[in-house]
Write a structure and sequence with these properties.
heterodimer; A: about 110 residues; mainly beta; 7-stranded mixed β-sheet; 4-stranded antiparallel β-sheet; about 50% strand; B: about 120 residues; 6-stranded mixed β-sheet; globular
Chain lengths: ~110, ~120
């Protein structure tokens, strides 16, 4: 089944403890992206990647890191999480511009 | 820079009534436009998209949207809604210019459509 897989689905952590949310797609897509969703703000793009080793900042990159060492994986790293990073996170991938992104099921992160 | 404004945060409607969810965008270059739907506790699903050509685009479940370049709008419509259409709907825009902007997809704030029996 073609899909974008994120792990974990739910995560509660403490301020300052480094964490990684994994994302993998099995569709051989070129583009991958991370979004955060907050009530009343819609989805805001954190980072995106056009191909292996090619990444660019979205609208809210502060406090996040990404890497694209393999085409299928695009992990999101929070080096020192803070409570304002409590959110619902989505990973997405796309074959090419204009095809639209396919989204994962989401990761609900709580930072206390 | 590009942006999207969804003019209604919530739209209540009765079953079988028509509905319109409004979306306006801003961009300095030509754009692709999308509507996504998010059912409760799920990820987003692509509903329909405008890339070029005919300004009226349709989805398989009866929704349609019309690209209006002069008014920079991409409103979503359905002539008769069902209870199962209850969800949050997001309008999104991306540039079709070159460079790294290809991957940038900007969403609106979302419109919650609630269909009442």
């Amino acid at each position: 089944e073609a899909q974008v897989t994120q792990n974990p689905r739910y995560l509660i952590t403490v301020t300052g403890k480094k964490l990684t949310v994994t994302c993998s797609q099995n569709m051989n897509h070129e583009y991958m992206s991370w979004y955060r969703q907050d009530p009343g703000l819609g989805l805001r793009q954190i980072y995106y990647s056009m191909n292996v080793e090619v990444t660019d900042k979205g609208d809210v990159p502060e406090g996040y890191k990404v890497s694209r060492k393999e085409k299928r994986n695009f992990p999101l790293i929070l080096e020192s999480p803070s409570p304002n990073q409590t959110s619902l996170y989505f990973c997405a991938s796309s074959f090419a511009q204009g095809y639209g992104y396919t989204f994962g099921s989401g990761t609900r992160l709580t930072v206390v | 820079a590009q942006s999207v404004t969804q003019l209604d945060s919530q739209v209540p409607v009765f079953e079988e009534a028509p509905v319109e969810l409004r979306c306006n965008y801003s961009s300095s270059v030509s754009v692709y436009l999308f509507w996504y739907v998010q059912y409760p506790n799920q990820g987003l699903q692509l509903l329909l998209k405008y890339l070029s050509g005919s300004t009226l685009v349709e989805s398989i479940n009866g929704f349609e949207a019309e690209f209006n370049k002069s008014q920079t709008s991409f409103h979503l419509r359905k002539p008769s809604v069902h209870i199962s259409d209850t969800a949050e709907y997001f309008c999104a825009v991306s540039s079709n210019a070159g460079g790294t902007s290809y991957g940038k997809l900007t969403f609106g704030q979302g419109t919650i459509l609630t269909v009442h029996p």
